[in-house]
Design goal:
Blueprint: H1 3-21, H2 32-43, H3 60-76, H4 83-97, H5 108-114, H6 116-124, H7 137-155, H8 157-160, H9 162-170, E1 179-181, E2 192-194, H10 202-208, E3 214-215, H11 218-223, E4 235-236, E5 242-246, E6 250-253, E7 260-266, E8 282-288, E9 301-317, E10 322-331, H12 347-368, H13 370-374
Parallel strand pairs: 5-8
Antiparallel strand pairs: 1-2, 3-9, 4-5, 6-7, 7-10, 8-9, 9-10
Protein name: YDG domain-containing protein
InterPro entries: PUA-like_sf, SRA-YDG_sf
Length: about 375
């Protein structure tokens, strides 16, 4: 089931439960018992299991998406339509923390995996208290501060070290799993390599990797099979799934006809001469954060969907002694609009990116010393 479908399903359930419990207004509760029941019902609005199986876990994707949406609005200083939804959820969780039952809907794993701690930190942070924040913002800050204190009292050390746990997990089970650093490599493209990169079949690729999928580096994309190399070059697996990473160079977009012109320069090996025979072919396009383009991600590498190569041209500049190429690309219709994925990476992914940057710098320091890192 796609994330969009799950989000829609969870929001319908949320709306239904919200109508029944009316947990947003404590004044409508007639006693502590009913208030606790309302809080428990609201807190379980994100459960993926049936209601008969109490406190069995959250749909982490749905909860993380909600946190990312609100964090994005805070970072950009704009009102967020889902603010009341998230505050209602946090209010219900706070009630659950104080109901005295000894059983809680939220455990440290849920906080860590959904980045709820980051959401609370952003809400409290004075940097994000813009003039256009939602109404009752001061009261909302007090609410999340109380919730954070409850979590600190209950979890203690594990809550304070939640970021250290994410850091350790990054290379074990996280986004850097099954890739290996090679700091002695002369070519920066070879700094990371996939342990077991497998080419996906066309059917598998279409089902598993959708526009908006995001990686820390090209080796991670190679590990997942969307490309067949950790280098910035066109690849084509044995099942016919072609991919082209655009990590460097420049893109210009013609907003009148939708054409995208990608320009790249360098040695003859850098201008993808093999693409001259691929005019009319469809490629999976990945964009990297070093690409000079309005479509480039803020960090890492993002899969942006299927594109058709409409034209390939190349020339040699004798003055600069460099080869140049230009690709004219056209995005295939009937797929997720590019506008829907330009906000990727989301805040939780940027959190992982920051950990990756720290991880890589620590590797360099350990391998070559602090001076090499500064150089």
């Amino acid at each position: 089931t796609s994330l969009a479908a799950r989000l829609d399903r969870e929001r319908r359930r949320w709306s239904s439960i919200n109508d029944q419990a009316d947990f947003m207004s404590s004044s409508k509760s007639k006693g502590k018992g009913k208030a606790s029941i309302a809080a428990s019902i609201a807190a379980r609005a994100f459960y993926i299991q049936e209601a008969a199986a109490p406190r069995t876990g959250y749909d982490a994707d749905v909860l993380r998406e909600m946190c990312d949406t609100v964090r994005t609005s805070l970072h950009e200083g704009r009102p967020e339509p889902r603010w009341e939804e998230v505050m209602g959820f946090l209010k219900a969780v706070l009630r659950d923390e104080g109901d005295g039952s000894g059983s809680h809907a939220i455990e440290i794993e849920t906080i860590r995996n959904t980045h709820l701690d980051k959401l609370i930190s952003d809400i409290i942070n004075p940097r994000y208290r813009h003039p256009r924040v939602p109404t009752r913002f001061a009261a909302d800050i007090q609410l999340v501060e109380r919730l954070e204190r409850k979590w600190i009292e209950r979890f203690r050390g594990p809550y304070f070290h939640i970021e250290e746990h994410r850091y350790r997990e990054l290379s074990q089970k996280g986004r850097l799993r099954d890739v290996t650093p090679n700091l002695d490599a002369q070519d920066p493209e070879d700094r990371w390599q996939a342990n077991n990169g497998e080419t996906l079949s066309e059917m598998e690729g279409n089902l598993e990797i959708e526009p908006g999928h995001w990686w820390l580096n090209l080796a991670c994309a190679h590990r997942d099979g969307i490309v067949d190399s950790n280098r910035e070059k066109p690849t084509k697996g044995k099942y016919g799934v072609a991919a082209l990473p655009l990590l460097t160079g420049q893109e210009d977009i013609d907003y009148d006809d939708g054409a995208i012109r990608y320009v790249r320069q360098g040695r003859i090996a850098d201008i993808h001469v093999s693409l001259i025979s691929q005019v009319g072919a469809t490629f999976r396009i990945l964009r990297g954060y070093h690409l000079r383009s309005p479509f480039a991600p803020k960090a890492g590498i993002r899969y942006d969907g299927l594109y058709t190569i409409r034209r390939y041209s190349q020339w040699f500049n004798e003055v600069s002694d460099r080869h140049h190429m230009m690709l004219t690309l056209e995005r295939v219709s009937d797929q997720r609009p590019i506008e829907d994925i330009l906000n990727i990476p989301r805040p939780s992914e940027i959190d992982d990116w920051n950990l990756y940057q720290k991880y890589e710098s620590e590797l360099v320091k350990q391998k070559k010393g602090a001076k090499a890192f500064l150089d």
